[in-house]
Design goal:
Length: 271
Amino acid sequence: MTTLRSQPLPFLYKGLALFTPGGDLIYCVDPSKQGHWHFQLCQALQTLLHLPEPPLFLVPCYTATLDRWLHPHTQQLQISAEAYPHVWRYRSLLNVLFGLSAEHWHMMSTPVDTCDAVVLNSYKQQFPQLWKNHNLVIRLDQVSMGSSPTLDALDASPADKVEPKPVETVQDNGSDADVSQGYVLRLFVASQNIRTKSILENLHQLLDQVLDVPYTLKVIDVAKHPERAEADQIAATPTLVKVWPEPVRRLVGDQLETDNVMQLLDALETS
């Protein structure tokens, strides 16, 4: 597996490191401080280790983050570095990669529900590669330089990858490669239950009837993927979001009725 040596660092930046239970590491350095890197790092691990899906359960249990900025009044350099208990032992490596020292680091509290040992071990059968060590240390924001042929699928700039690929695809009647040719919808739910199943069945039936273009309906469980709910500013479930065509529109809870969904789909033409 490919290993990239430490690259020159900008003076001010945000950094994010994602480890695997086996000790592999993939990280990024973002001078713009605008990229959404959590999913991209998970997606990179999926590609590199041939996983069935992005291992989002690693976030935040196996992450470390840092920020270098200038104090607005004194213009003195400020450094904030935080690591979760599962990766605390890797501080020496992180210091080399991010140009820090031991005193910069603070330990974050582990989310009890998501980072419980029993919960994490439940993923071992599905993602056995993550529990092996491949001597992997990769800086994701520089892999587009042709460092490895296995990284071709990740060959894009941070700005190009702000919008991550869907966490779960329930139905895909067209390609996401050209979303202008169809609709991209996300349904945020709190859990997979009878109500969710009923909503999905009704949505699929309606979309199949009224749309004569491809559509992608993606279901995201906010309990499993809270970072996606935060990114899309979801305050309640279920919430249906029309991502494309623009403008972005949403329906919440009891608003998911036929007439409202029709208005949501026609928002581009009626606005």
